[in-house]
């Protein structure tokens, strides 16, 4: 087995998406994982699929070095406190998407927070539950470690080691900084996606039949669990509301400009907002943290047939061109798909030439 920084056994409380993904990843490395969950059926399913062993079976055995709490945000503080009491020699972390509220609850309870270090892997899927767990869920993803005034060096080393073993990139910040950050990059995007998707309910003219990839991209996360997201949003209410108010001001400004589109200066307001959006997108990191502005896009038309995408990627590889990123769009009511391949500008002409020689149709 590959040497790990994380020692057996690790106790995982909560057998949903994140808990089972932690279990699968650690077991792949040969680390013993003891699973626990309030739901016996969920727990047994997670065990049956190999995410770990029943914690009850480990009774009387070796105590866990690390406890990972993977439960909903509204009970995270309560469960962490119970685990700190039960395992006085263990480091306890949680993976809730809000960090200030659990820490404040633990302080109020008088818990030993020198052994608690909240964390948050910036990874997930639209679907949850034990069947959604994946060993590679955290690979290449940021794993926030929310340090506080009583954080011990040992606790920090243990949780950093856990994140690294899971393939993630540890990022340390305070709980408050974390909550402000996720309000902008996670919680408000969820609400924007949801609110836009809710407008589709009123579609009486069949407009959704014309929907392209843009709308699908914007509404992809709108299918997330309403109960879980209500807990997340209310736990991080103030930072999320602050971002929403700024977005509301931008929406009001653009809506007013559109309503007065015949007046002088309205076009400038709209154009400046669009340009600001361009600047914001450019700040999103691309491959290896590089700027997306460094890449060109080549759009290739492919037939909706088995093996076409694999053939295209094989031809790109034969052309000795490195793919920085790619996405696929489906043409409405057509048996054609569009694959957008991102490459460094110096490789654009070569890629287009090589693909055209192999019979591929370049759309853009």
What do you see in this structure?
By secondary structure, this protein is of the alpha/beta class. It folds into 3 domains: 10-174, Rossmann fold, CATH 3.40.50.720; 181-282, 6-phosphogluconate dehydrogenase C-terminal fold (Orthogonal Bundle), CATH 1.10.3660.10; 289-362, ACT domain (Alpha-Beta Plaits). 44% of the residues lie in helices and 16% in strands. It has helices spanning 17-28, 40-48, 73-86, 100-109, 153-165, 175-199, 213-219, 226-235, 237-259, 266-282, 308-318, 348-357; strands at residues 10-13, 33-36, 53-54, 66-69, 91-94, 118-121, 142-147, 169-174, 296-303, 325-330, 336-343, 361-362. The strands form 3 sheets. Strands 3-2-1-4-5 form a 5-stranded parallel beta sheet, with helices on both faces. A 4-stranded antiparallel beta sheet has the order 10-11-9-12, with helices on one face. Strand 4, helix 3 and strand 5 (91-94) form a beta-alpha-beta unit. The longest helix has 25 residues, at 175-199. The radius of gyration is 24 Å and the shape is globular. It starts with 9 loop residues before the first strand and ends with a strand. The mean pLDDT is 90. One of its GO terms (biological process) is tyrosine biosynthetic process. Residues 8-292 form the Prephenate/arogenate dehydrogenase domain. Pfam families: PDH_C, PDH_N. This is Prephenate dehydrogenase.
